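Ticket #4471: structure output looks truncated?

Reporter: J.K.
Steps to reproduce: submitted the chain below (165 residues) through the standard prediction queue, then opened the result file.
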Amino acid sequence: MALNALVKFSLIFFIVLAMVKTSFSQEVKTVSFDELMMILNDHDGATKVVNFWATWCKPCLDELPYFVQATDKMKDENFEFIFVSVDFQSVHASVVEKAKQLGLKGTLLHLNAPGNEWIDQVDSTWSGAIPYTILILPNGKRSTHYDQFDNYEALKSFLDKNIPN
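Returned output as attached by the reporter:
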């Protein structure tokens, strides 16, 4: 009888462990610039909120919790949150760990595009400074934000102002 209880306990323990690991693990996919552009230009009917960030960028890290809050509050709407790390590939493990620490949800990408030539192709008016956010409507219309959001309300205001009712 005791052995049977131990087997049941072990089985339950491993199921719970697997559920906890799954709930906290979110894949950070490494993508080329061409793959990123395909994602950004895919007019799949969702409104895309794209945030460019890096693990070494304090303003980026300061504003990302507001995006997590927005992701939670807008989860039932047709929004896709895409987080694009521009860190060097050599620190991919740090990108994964920081995304986990911050609780980022949505599409997590690590851009593998050395140099800065790609920046003008994303937005010819963007200097390349981060944080940088693009709102892409289902019809392809884009709105951009070149600075750090100071709080959730500022992010929400940007979204509300640029999304037609």
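Triage note (M.O.): checked the attachment and the full token line is present. The beta strands are 28-31, 47-53, 79-85, 107-111, 132-136, 142-145.
Status: closed, working as intended.
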